[in-house]
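Dear Dr. H.,

I hope your travels went smoothly. While you were away I took the liberty of generating a structure for the chain from your last submission, since the lab meeting agenda had it listed for discussion. I wanted you to have the full record in hand beforehand rather than looking at slides cold. The sequence, exactly as received, is reproduced here:
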Amino acid sequence: MTTDLEVLGQTLKQAQYRNHRAMDLALREVGVSLVQWDALRAIDQMSGASGHDLAVVTFQSDQAFGTLANRLVDLGLITRSAGHGRRIEHTLTDEGRQVLTDGHAIVGGILDGRFSPLGEDDRATLLRLLQTLTARD
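The corresponding predicted structure, in token form, is as follows:
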């Protein structure tokens, strides 16, 4: 029997949608959306990174990330400062670091629940398979 690749793609997209929707709703508890929290996570992992580099890792255009960063500045969650040349560097504020930490606890709980039907071996296999797919791009 051949796997229907359209069904496989649709199922993957459905799992991602449910995951993102649950996290987005839950992160409201700490006052951010999933997109905002993901940006905080990227800034934390790449402190001082340019807007372009952060846009790439958060799957956004440069313009969209710039708008998002301005919103995070307005919320007091990040600072932006001049770097080399025209580069604008991004750093978390103490409040941004706290929101990120609180968000990790929320997201961790959601992910625990989302992946609870799978045993550790299945989780490892799923991760390996998805990494294989994404390594090709």
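Two observations you may find useful: The CA atoms of residues 8 and 14 lie 10 Å apart. The first strand starts at residue 78 and ends at 82.

With kind regards,
E. W.
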